[in-house]
Structures are given as C-alpha cells and as structure tokens.
Write a structure and sequence with these properties.
The complex is a heterotrimer.
Chain A (H helix, E strand, L loop, with lengths): L3 E10 L2 E11 L4 E5 L6 H8 L6 E6 L2 E2 L5 H7 E4 L11 H6 L14 H13 L15 H14 L4 E5 L7 H18 L2 E5 L3 H7 L2 E6 L2 E6 L1 H4 L2 H8 L3 E6 L2 E6 L7 H5 L1
Parallel strand pairs in A: 3-8, 3-9, 6-7, 7-8
Antiparallel strand pairs in A: 1-2, 1-4, 4-5, 9-10, 11-12
Helix pairs in contact in A: 4-5
Chain B lengths: L1 H18 L15 E5 L2 E5 L6 E3 L2 H9 L6 E4 L21 H5 L5 E4 L5 H6 L4 E3 L6 H15 L2 H20 L9 E5 L12 H7 L4 E2 L16 H7 L3 E4 L2 H4 L3 H6 L7 H4 L3 E3 L2 H5 L5 H13 L6
Parallel strand pairs in B: 3-4, 3-5, 5-6, 7-8, 7-9, 9-10
Antiparallel strand pairs in B: 1-2
Helix pairs in contact in B: 5-6, 6-13
Chain C lengths: L1 H9 L11 H20 L7 H11 L11 H35 L12 H15 L8 H22 L6 H26 L4 H8 L8 H20 L1 H7 L3 H6 L4 H23 L5 H13 L3 H25 L8 H19 L5
Classes of the chains: A alpha/beta, B alpha/beta, C mainly alpha.
Chain lengths: 266, 304, 356
Amino acid sequence: MTAIEVRNLSVTLGGRMILRDVSLAVAPGEWVGLIGPNGAGKTTLLRAIATLVPRSGAVLFDGRDAGVLRPRDRARCVAIVAQRPLLPDAMSVAEYVLLGRSPYVSYFGTETRTDVEAVASALERLGIEGFADRPLGTLSGGEQQRAVLARAIAQNAPTLLLDEGTSALDVGAQQQVLELVSELRSSEKLTVLSAMHDLTLAGQFTDRVALLSAGEIVARGSPEEVIREDLVRAHYGAEVRVTHGPDGIVVSPVRSRRTTSEEVRA
Amino acid sequence: MRRSLSIVLLVFVAAACGDARPAGTPALSTGSFPATIQASSGSVTIPARPARIVSLSPTSTEILFAIGAGAQVIAVDDQSTYPPTAPKTTLSGFEPNIEAIASYRPDLVVFSNKAIAEKLTALSIPGLYHDAAATLDDTYRQVNELGTATGHVGDAAKLVSSMRKEIGEIAAAVKENEGEPAYYHELDSTYFSVTSKTFIGSVYALLGLRNIADAADAQGTGYPQLSAEYIIQANPALIFLADTKCCGQSATTVAKRAGWNQIDAVKGGHVIALDDDIASRWGPRIVDFLRTVSDALNALPSAA
Amino acid sequence: MAVASVRERLGANRVRPARLRIGWVAGGVAFLIGAVALGVFIGPVGISPVQALRRLAGLLPFVDDTSNLSAQHEAILVQLRLPRVVLAAMVGGTLAISGAAYQGAFRNPMADPYLLGAAAGAGLGATIVITYTSAGFGSDLMPIAAFVGALAAVALAYAIGRAGGVGRTVTSLILAGIAITSFLTAIQTYVQQRQSQTLREVYGWILGRLTTAGWSDVVLALPYMAVGIAVILSHRRLLDVLSVGDEEATSVGIRAARVRLIVVVAASLATAAAVAVSGLIGFVGLIVPHVVRLVAGSSYRVVLPLSLAFGGAFLILCDLLGRTLISPAELPIGVVTAFFGAPFFALVLRTSRKTL
C-alpha cells in the first residue's frame, strides 16, 4: 500500500500545461525528493497532490482517492509546508501552530485539551516552546520556518509535503530543519515528499529522487542514479561535478571556462 | 441718451395726460407703453405691450394669469403648476438655459434667478426680476409691476385691493384665543421649519399665531431644523404640513411618528395638510392659504 | 522522560488559544451600559435623571412606575430616546462586527461592511424611493428599498467577482465590489441631479440618521441583525484560520471559499438591515475593529465580540453628540462618526504598543 500514489496527473493553469501526465508512487516512511529546474512544476505537483489546484488524473492517499475525501479528512492525511507561507504578524506562535489542529476541531467548536497538548508537543519538537507567546512578526526567518513546520507536525498527518521550506534559511538552519524532518520521519513514521533546490542536500537526506523537468518526470531512482552530471547538464543547463562523499553525493558547480577580463573589454 | 430722454418725456406726458382726466373716470386699465418699471434691481423699460411673455417663476405665472395677462403668456417654467391652463414647458427656472428661452422669441421674461439677468440684457430681451417676497407688501408691489409691464394696471390694482380686503376680513374673523396658540410649520420630513421672519411666517403672524421655531433659530437663517424632542416639548396646538406633495406626509404619517401622539395638535386632530405649492409661493393664492389657517385656528377648542 | 517533564514544567499555560478574557467582556459591557445611560438621560429636552430612571424601572415587569413625568416627557423618554439609543447600539454593533467580519473574510484591513457595494446599493434604492415616489422618510417603502438595494449590490459583486478565476478570488471580489459601488453611485448621482429638489432629503439619508427611530425601526431590523451577528460570531475560529490564506486554510481542512461566502452573506444581511433603518453611517465598520485589535489583540475570537460591544457604545455616544451639539438641529451622524472617530483612532494608534 503506497502512502502517496499519483497517476497520470495533469495540471493546466492560466492556459499553460504545467504538469503533463505525471505518475509517482511513494512508499510509507519513504523520503522522496523532487528536484528539477525552476518552472519545472515542483510546487505545482505538491499543490496538486494536496488538492489545492484543479487537476486531471488520480491522487491516492493510502489507496483512498483524494478527490472524494472531504477537506477535513484530506487534511488528516497530508500536511503541506508551503514555499512562502502567509504569516500574520500579530498572531502568536502558539495560535499559529494551533491552526494545524483545525482538521480535528468541529466546525463551530473550539480546541480541546488534546489539541493544546499536541501543539505543546510540536513546539517542543522544533525547539521553539520559548516563543509560544511571541507574535510571528517578531521572529527571524529560521524561527518562522520552524513555526510553520510545527504547525504541520501538529496536524498529525502521516504524510508531509515540503515545498522548498529550507531554501531561505542559512546553511545551519537548513541543516537543522532537515535533520528534524529526518528524526520526525523515524519517530512519527512520516512519509515525506519534498521539493528541493539544493542537490547535495537532496542527495544526503532522501531515499529516492525524482527529476521533474518541463512538467514531466524524466528520471527517478536513488540519488546516485538520478543526480548525474549529464542529466544536470541537460535539464538544469549547468555544469557540475558529482562526487561521492562520506554522507552521500556531493554536487559542486564547475566553472569550465573563466571569462578573462581582456575578453570582457574586447 | 437722446432716445431714452424722449422716452422719459413721453412717459411724463402720458402721466400728465392721465392726471388731466376728470375725476370719476377710471384710470387707464391697460396702461401705456413704453412702460418703465423701477424694480429693485434697476429700471426696466418695456417698449411695447408684450404678447410673448415667458415666465420662469411659478408665483409670477400665478400673478400674470390672475391679472388677466394669461393670453399674453406663451411659455412658463416646469414648476409652474397653477393655473393648470398655463403653457407649461420644460424650461427650468432654477437652471435657466438662455438659448432655450430665446428660442421662444419672448418680448418679456419674468424670472426669479438673478443669473439670467445679464444674458437677457445681452440679447436685448426685456427682463423683470421678481425674487421671493419677504412681506405681503412685496407681493402687492410685484402684482402692480406686472400690471404695468403687461398693460393691465387696473386689473392689478383691483387684485391688490381685493387681496387686502380679504386678508383683513379673515384676520378680523379670527376668534378670541387665550394667549397665542402655538403652531409648527413643517417644510420637509427632516423637520426643517420656518420662523416668523420669513414670508410665510409673517403671514401666520397676522392671525396671532406663535411659531415654535422662532426660539430655535440661533443662526438667524429663517429656516431652522428642529428635532422631534423639541417639537414634542413645544407641544404646538396646530401642525401645518407643507411637505405633503414632496415627501408624502399627512396627518396619518405624523400620528405614526414615535412620541408624536402626545402633542396637542395630533391628539386633537389639528394636523393640517397644506398644498406644498400654495405654502411656498407668494402670489394671489396666499389668501387661500390664510383662509385654511384661520379655519384651522377657529376649529381649536376654546381655552377653558 | 525528558520530554514529559518539560511538558509538565510548561503546562498548557504557555500554549493559550486566544480567548476572550473576562476582563474585556466586563469592560465592553460596562462601556455599553454607560453609553446607554448617557444617551437616555441627555438630550435637548431636560428630563430629570431620577424621574427617568424611575420610569425606565417601571417598564420592567413586576416593578411599579413611580415616576411623575409629564405626558410629553414620557413620550420623549420612552418613545423617542430609548428606542433611539437601542437602535444606535444595534446599528453600531452590527456595523462594527460586520466590518471585522469583512476584514477577516477578505484578509484586508481596509475592508468595511460596504466593500462589496452594500452602501451604494442601499443609497440607490433610497434615492429612487425619495425621488420618484411620493413616499419619503418614515414611509414603509424606504427601508425595504434600501435593504433590497444593499443585498442586490452584494449579490451582483459576488456574481461578477466569482468569474475571476479560482486563484484570484479575494482580489477579484474586492475589485468587483469597487466596480459595483462606482456604477451604482454614478446612477444615484445622476438621479439626484435630475431631481434636485429632493437633494436635501437624499443627503440627509446618505449621511446617516437615527432621527426617525422608534420602536418600529428596532423591531424591523432586529431579526436580520440577530441572525447575521449569530452566524458571524459562530465563525470566529474559522476567520482566524482564514487569515493564513485560502490555500493554507484549505490545507488544514477548511473550505475557504465557502466560509467566506457564509460570513459575507451574514455580514451583508446584518449590514443591509442596519443601513435600511439608519442610512449610510461610515467609519464605524472600518475603525472600531482596528481599535479593538490595538487594545485587546487580533484574534477574531476577541475582535468580533468586542467590536459588537464597542461599536454599539461608540455609535450611541456619536449620536448623543450629534443631537446635542447644535440642538435642536442635528448633525448627521455620519459626520460625527468621522469627525470624532478619526482623532480618537489616531490617538489609540499612537499610544498602542501592539502591531496592527
């Protein structure tokens, strides 16, 4: 039983076909990384899986068709961390994380003790329990990112969709968040599908990788199989060198030719 | 200069001739032309008996027809509703369009909007500016001026004297009341009223009525706005509604107003619906207005 | 184990869902009652407060009326001032809570209850009645025309805005509202120009007035306001969820567009009823929620109920000023709310430490 199964997914937005007949399967507990150049459709794919954009094709969570699920039930299956989340400046961190409990609160009801404890636990997990009363607007970028992740954790869904959640962070914060996700994956048995820019991090943290280019998956497999110099050259248009470090592959950009100052002036 | 001098001379001669008639002969009922009128805005000369009069003021229309000059009127403005036979057009007295007026080729224009005076002069059309009267004497003056201007001097004089006589009779027939009964004259449904300084207020005063709005006019505009509380507190014995046509008010609607059923006028059924037009014009029908008011006053129960 | 003890140490105290604290509720109620008292005891006609209190007490069941007011004073107190104060509280509270609801539904701090054209529609309905029929103020046709006009305008704005595509719903709704407002206002201005003799009546209505208030107005508006306010209050948690954006709200299981529609319909219904009986009173719906946010917090669980109380009190006080400053004439209440509300808001803005 796959945690996420995507079959023949196509998405057309604004007259343009962003995703073309995409199929993907993620096993429970797996961490699959989505890589690809800008505009390939990674964000759109994640949003389509979360049923946030209209699509054709099927998306199944644990075998259940996402299209027929009520939004509440869908929210209990999958949590998404958006690329640029909207954070109301005046809302406190605790209130924000509490929003993640919405799938469990009745329409006209209010949060229960269980919800409050889930929030407390999520805050601790991400090490921001000290910020519980602080307004979101007063936090740094890294702290905000952790608040968003805490909200996704509080949602208690078995599947986590991460959209470039770490790209705005400095290298230390990036590492922390990804380590955290990795820990949560083992402790909470999460399934993770994340869109990533940084190919090295993608190689280090994920189990499998899918390369999305121009709306289609052009390669899938282990990081070693997919993150190859020729594929990177073909789809990113970049020159890189892929080496194998102790923790996984390392992708480093290569300057094959230096433009000399004489050539610039000529 | 020579020309106007000879006209003035002509007028003097005509007047002298008039004076020379033996006593007992009635004054010329038609008047003579060219006629000069010393209006408040300057003198106006009408060269010949006008046969194409345009009236842009509803009151002037009423006066013109009342003095027998109706046949000489070819167009009246869109608010001139009386008499019904008056040739109503789409001309506006508030926003006069000089070209539209000129298209009627008038030889006399009677108007109440000063803005048009210059344009008439520019087109050499004789114009008579009659703005709102402040007192009954103003009304009588306007009647006489229109009589002179249209060649109905005698008819105008007759109208003035009959108005004076009727008004005098009505005022005399008012029964004795202890003190002055208070009245409220309503202009519109936002409780705008008039004070005794205004024309209509001064007419009410002829019958010995006391206006509840007089105390409320701190700015002296003559048209203060009252509030429901003030009116209820003042407890007028008579209420006159001048907003029956414009705003649909009547004795019934007044009785429904919150708290108004404690006012003497409402309790006793002394809420009188006036014709909006009669209450806002200063023409011959002011006599009808006064009669309505005196009837209401006489219908009041005598003070114990 | 370490985790458990940490949680014990923290307790659930550090994680507090925004709650409306009792202190604020008491404050709001006290403010409202104070405003009601001032509104009832003060007016162009002097009525002894003691007698007034006795008469009001006499209105309660099982309490004897021991007042000795004249028939006129009693009429003024019970038939004029009391319903007027009650109506001011209802209208002020409705406009404030509807404004807050609109601000939450559209995630826009500049929103007010007239965003989708309710004011323009009501204004046009009232203008047409005043100008083309012989009915005027105080007629039964006026409130109905204003009410229908308000709702029709909102429905039209929604119909046009929905066509703007899924992803741009909020923006396209706001733009549709602006378009409808401009269009209907243009028609209204044209009608006013053509029939300028009714201009004063029309303007009197547009600037807002509570002078025709009697108990009949209260009864007329109450059901719609009550329903609208109840629905808005019951959605306070959902409006908080909506504040993180439609997509994210959907991702935590909320049907964002549907919640928005319900809240907007409820707020528009209540606003239409308010506008029908009191004309167009501006400023309250926009500013009162912001003042509440600045002093008490920005969660809608706090803002919605407090806006109701403070909006009502604010309008009672503005009405009081309007009818006593140039007594016996009255300042249009729309003028008073802006004239005194704006400096007050500026003061609160300067002295507040919270962010908006």
